[in-house]
Amino acid sequence: MIRTSVVLASMLPGLLVAPAFGQWVEFADETGSRIDATQDPNSGPSVIVSNPDEKDYAWGDVDQDGDIDLVGVYKQIGTTTGKRRNVLLMNEGIADGHAFNGVLVDRTTQYATASSVTLPPELGGGISQGFLDLTNDRDVILVDVNGDTWLDIVTATTLSGIPAGTNGGKSISHPRIYINLQDDPPGSGIWQGFIFDDEDRIPTQPTEPRFCAVAAGDVDGDSDLDLYFGDYEQGGSRPVDLDNRLFINNGFGYFSDESEARMTYDQREVSFSMAV
């Protein structure tokens, strides 16, 4: 239990009223009752609740039902090549009609495994399973990349050990964009989840990215959202030092690398970009 004191004061003409103490806001740890890790056949508490992995989260109303959902990306702790699967927790428990009374339910397999991307031969060469693929993601954001008002997922990927663009390796070595499939039919409230539909939404880099952070914003003022990735040097040598990268949106969720055209070397150069 964490308690924090709320201090109130008021100023009247010629009179300062002393702060009123003892008005408490109480925070209770309800992790056990607010996260349901039992509903996904490929998951469980060891994946969602009790694992020791490095994690990053993004939150937003991905299915537009008025409550807040949670996306989590996991990796082995530290500057390592250890890949993990990601998770999608949907807010479903609204027993008394209040969105804030929700329970986050693991729906990764149901809503975050659609794909039309082929994995590299060393991983079997089959179709990607989206969030169930083992990836080395260090950051994640929820942002509408294609302008349809539905939140999409963008990951920042690092140290994946597969040459860019070789034998399909880009699907693992590069950041991914998962497109929101919206409701089908539109307005029905029957949400379809996310799809990893095209690895080339992100421009191919000349060597393995080591991205630790990603942020979105309208850099060029054309009313769509561009992406900025923070890179780092640690993890051994590589043929090209990528540094930070600026990817410009064409309005449909496909990006071009305009880092050199829009930024100087000094602006891009970095040793370890932990946040952008």
Describe the structure.
With 276 residues, the chain is mainly β. The chain contains 6 helices and 16 strands. The protein has helices spanning 31-34, 45-48, 108-111, 170-173, 259-262, 265-268; strands spanning 2-12, 15-27, 35-36, 54-60, 69-75, 87-91, 104-106, 114-115, 137-143, 152-157, 177-180, 194-196, 211-217, 226-231, 245-249, 255-257. The strands form 4 sheets. A 5-stranded mixed β-sheet has the order 3-7-6-5-4. A 5-stranded mixed β-sheet has the order 8-12-11-10-9, with no helix packed on it. Strands 13-14-15-16 form a 4-stranded antiparallel β-sheet. It is globular and about 55 Å long. The protein starts with a strand and ends in an 8-residue tail after the last helix. Residues 1-12 and 164-168 have low confidence and may be disordered.
Average residue pLDDT: 88
- Content-based structural category: mainly beta
Number of strands: 16
Number of helices: 6
Strand-and-helix sequence, N→C? Answer: EEHEHEEEEHEEEHEEEEEEHH
What coarse outline follows from CA principal-axis ratios?
globular
Helix amount: under 10%
In terms of per-residue confidence, which ranges show pLDDT below 50 for 5 or more consecutive residues?
1-12, 164-168
List keywords for this structure.
276 residues; mainly beta; five-stranded mixed beta sheet; 6 helices
Which secondary structure elements does this structure contain, and how are they paired or packed?
Blueprint: E1 2-12, E2 15-27, H1 31-34, E3 35-36, H2 45-48, E4 54-60, E5 69-75, E6 87-91, E7 104-106, H3 108-111, E8 114-115, E9 137-143, E10 152-157, H4 170-173, E11 177-180, E12 194-196, E13 211-217, E14 226-231, E15 245-249, E16 255-257, H5 259-262, H6 265-268
Parallel strand pairs: 3-7, 8-12
Antiparallel strand pairs: 1-2, 4-5, 5-6, 6-7, 9-10, 10-11, 11-12, 13-14, 14-15, 15-16
